[in-house]
Write a structure and sequence with these properties.
Layout: E1 2-4, E2 10-12, E3 16-21, E4 37-43, H1 51-59, E5 70-75, H2 81-100, H3 113-131
Antiparallel strand pairs: 1-2, 3-4, 4-5
Length: 137
């Protein structure tokens, strides 16, 4: 099976390391004997992703990415191992999809003539109102 990121970029399963671990927190007697949580590890540097995506992923300030360039995701939201596996893979997909989108460069704009006139008129009106509050001689 392959994790599809975009129409032409996908990650083969052998690059994603999944292991079942015991979930933390409350859950009764069953939580102590069943490994339903999933621990996902994805090495960014050793992946087959395009170089541009690898560079962007390594620049991300995300606590799930360690110093060695490995994405670590722990999924334990659901009771079953299969649902937690799907959740971990979806979260990995969202991280990688986040770097595929190119942010549009901001083009600075200047205020128009109408907005300048409106601003100055409101300042004049406000000044007249304040002038009426002065001491009467």
């Amino acid at each position: 099976m392959v994790l599809k990121i975009t129409s032409n970029v996908s990650i083969p399963d052998d690059e994603i390391e999944l292991s079942a671990i015991r979930a933390q927190g409350a859950g009764g007697q069953n939580v102590n004997k069943v490994s339903s949580a999933i621990h996902l590890r994805f090495d960014i540097k050793a992946s087959s992703l395009p170089i541009l995506y690898i560079q962007r992923l390594l620049k991300l300030q995300d606590r799930r990415i360690n110093k060695e360039g490995v994405i670590i995701i722990k999924a334990q939201q659901f009771r079953t191992r299969e649902k937690n596996r799907e959740d971990a893979l979806q979260r990995l997909q969202e991280i990688i999809e986040g770097v595929t989108v190119v942010q549009k460069k901001r083009r600075p704009t200047k205020p128009g003539k109408g907005s300048k006139k409106k601003r100055l008129d409101s300042k004049t009106r406000r000044g007249k109102t304040k002038a009426l509050r002065g001491r009467i001689l």
